[in-house]
Design brief:
This protein is mainly alpha-helical. The protein is 65% helix and 8% strand. It has one domain. It contains 6 helices and 3 strands, in the order H-H-H-H-H-E-E-E-H. The protein has a 3-stranded antiparallel β-sheet with strand order 1-2-3. Helix 1 packs across helix 3, helix 1 packs parallel to helix 6 and helix 5 packs across helix 6. It starts with a helix and ends in a 5-residue tail after the last helix.
């Protein structure tokens, strides 16, 4: 299989995953802002733009804050939202930091690996990407946004 074609397909998948995960992270930050400041005002804007959307508050930090707020824990959809957020975060991190295994990959199954910590691998295929897309749609809907 032509390695350029596989790399090109992976680049498209990476772009989609990182872009949609960034959107979910933004929406999660806004959801947290609305928890602390239900009405828009100067303090709400400061919290959102100077705390929630800075490099100092990572996607993981935002998820952890969401997971620690008792109000969210009481919601019926909380377990599914938590699971979806972690799935999106995990795949986003894989796409951003793991490497392509060109020797094992083909157009249907793209293999990625990392050597950080210990050797780990994942197979990127249509089923995984479809599952990811469903999680994105679910999260955006739960947070009151459409795709």
């Amino acid at each position: 299989m032509d390695k350029k074609i596989i790399r090109g397909k992976l680049d498209l998948i990476r772009g989609e995953v990182i872009s949609s995960a960034t959107r979910v992270e933004f929406v999660l930050g806004y959801r947290l802002r609305k928890y602390f400041f239900p009405k828009s005002n100067n303090k709400a804007a400061i919290l959102f733009w100077n705390v929630m959307n800075t490099p100092y508050l990572t996607f993981d930090n935002k998820i952890s804050i969401y997971e620690s707020i008792p109000y969210f824990k009481k919601l019926k959809s909380y377990p599914a939202i938590k699971k979806s957020l972690r799935f999106v975060q995990r795949l986003r991190n894989i796409m951003a930091h793991w490497d392509l295994d060109e020797k094992k990959s083909d157009l249907n199954d793209i293999f990625m690996f990392t050597l950080v910590g210990k050797y780990r691998k994942i197979t990127i295929n249509n089923n995984l990407i479809e599952d990811y897309r469903k999680e994105i749609v679910f999260l955006l809907k739960e947070f009151g946004y459409s795709r």
